[in-house]
Amino acid sequence: MKKTNLSSTVGLLVLLTIALIAGLVLMQRNQNTQRGAYFAGTTVFLQPTAATVTVGQPSPIQLWVQSGQIAGGTDLAKVDFVQTRICYSGNVSFDPAQVANLVTVNSDAFDTVQLASVNNNCLDIAISSNKPAASLKSGLMQVATIRFTGVNAGSGTFSLVAANTKVSGNNPNASSTDMSLAIQSVTGASYTVGQGTNNGNWDVANFKFSFIGQVVDGQCAANWPISIVALNQSNGLSNTYSNIIPTRDSVVDGKVVYRVSQILTGFNQTSNVALFIKGPKHLQIKYGQDNQTAMYNAAGGQLTMTSDSSTSPMHDFTGYPLLAGDLNQDGVVNGLDYALLKPEALSHKTVSPGGNLDGDLDGDCVVTSNDVQLFKTSLLDKQGQLY
Amino acid sequence: MSMKTNDVVKLVLPVVAVVVVIESVMVISNLVKKTNPVLDIVPTPAAEVSNGGINPMVTVVPQPAQADLVFEVAQPAMKVGKATTVGLNIVAKRDLQVDTLDLYIKYDPTAFDIASTSIKQGSGLPRPIFAKASTKTGLVVANFLIEAPKGVSVKSGAVFSLLNFTVKPKKVGNFEFEIDTGNVRRESATMIVENGVGKAIPYSSNKLVVSVSK
Known about the structure:
The complex is a heterodimer of chains A (387) and B (214). Helices cover 15% and strands 37% of the residues of chain A. Chain A contains 3 helices and 22 strands. In chain A, strand 18 and strand 19 (255-264) form a beta hairpin. The radius of gyration of chain A is 29 Å and the shape is elongated. Chain B has one helix at 2-30; strands spanning 67-73, 77-79, 84-92, 96-106, 112-114, 120-121, 130-134, 139-145, 152-154, 159-169, 173-179, 191-194, 203-205, 208-213. In chain B, strands 2, 4, 7, 8, 9, 11, 12 and 14 form an 8-stranded mixed beta sheet that branches. Classes of the chains: A mainly beta (387), B mainly beta (214). Chains A and B meet through helix 1, strand 4, strand 7, strand 8 and helix 2 of A and helix 1, strand 4, strand 7, strand 8 and strand 12 of B.
């Protein structure tokens, strides 16, 4: 009896010792169980690398990836997910209202647009594949085609943001849980936007305007987009044109003057026209006459246009700059906008040149009492008009 | 000898068992489940866009009032030609820190003369940035921007004066003063915005009915 007990005890002891040793071995073994390890590398790029487009016309650009070899093997990695951010510098737009139609996946390799969102001159997209592992693509593959529209003649760049780029795929190593591919490089593209040919039917709106209080050398007002609504009161016809990047023209009396020459596609009324112009943090202003210096408080408008950019009159709206303060873009300047501005002003929030802050109304990349004063000016002006 | 061995075994066995259990827990907790990369942007349906574009329909759920706007008048029976002060107070249902006040009070400009200069702020408020009795729209308008970092404090249950103004009745009849919520103009929605939250506080309000005699 005693012998049996002893044997059992020793046996159990041996078993536990084996388990102890095994546990120690498991803990020390490199199993790649940590987050962030990659099983292959990849590059992400746009094609063509230089695109030429026409104002008002949608044009395609393609997103590609090229996956590398799987670590420890010779096969190329299979890809099932791509996410990236494409930022553009001006003269083009991805229309937020049409973003659902902007991205077409390459169905050979992928299936679903998980995300397509436009914010602050950047397009965020995420594309995924639902295909079984055996059907996934590897190596060089097109991910999607993205349509953008030229809005102003000029040039710019599409930049892929590496920090916002993620690629994942199928890791054939069943014991590994690493699904991510290391982003080895991202390459954008450049573009040139030509004015193109106005087919002779549409008006060309030529005008100069200003943003109230904009600092002359402010580096955060570049590429502030505007929208235009063209209205012909006599027949109620109106058309909207969004994300227009005006061209900086001159500085007059300390005021930055912008110039716009915009083909109003779909609009061909040459007289009695009014334009409603709105900035990114500005109230919509009605401009109904040339050299306007105050609120246009009449129905309709007196503007004239032609379909030839060289003969369509250049209207001067700089005497009545766009009023700043509509931070939340709801069309009014009120306490809700001040609630957004105040904390930024209290903390003197700053941003790098070229960046954007909601409360930076003068474009100098920092929110200060000057921006608060501009807000108050707009509020007083607007309340005085309304009441 | 065997007694000693037994004692050792009895001591070592539980210790080893505990160590094995701890190791197992640690190994399992280090394992990473197979998942797709976490999106750093919350995916949205393709039809939903940012940047002021098309948004899906939102169902507005009525919010319980967190404050009451209450009119005050010393004497609701007025006489033609005799000036009377009308006040507007707020009674909060919880402690509030207020950043802005956009006040719009409807009145009948054919029944009352109100001088814009008579519009005065309550004792706890700074001067309004804009104040006007608009005969064009029939609104007493007062906009307050509170520059103090925490806003202005309105204690729960206390009667906090917002503004008062002087009215001079011009004709006989029964007339009302009422808070406008955007009925006169889209922009004339009375709003109280809370500090740090950046949202309007739901409120309820009464109507002030006065009778004017000769």
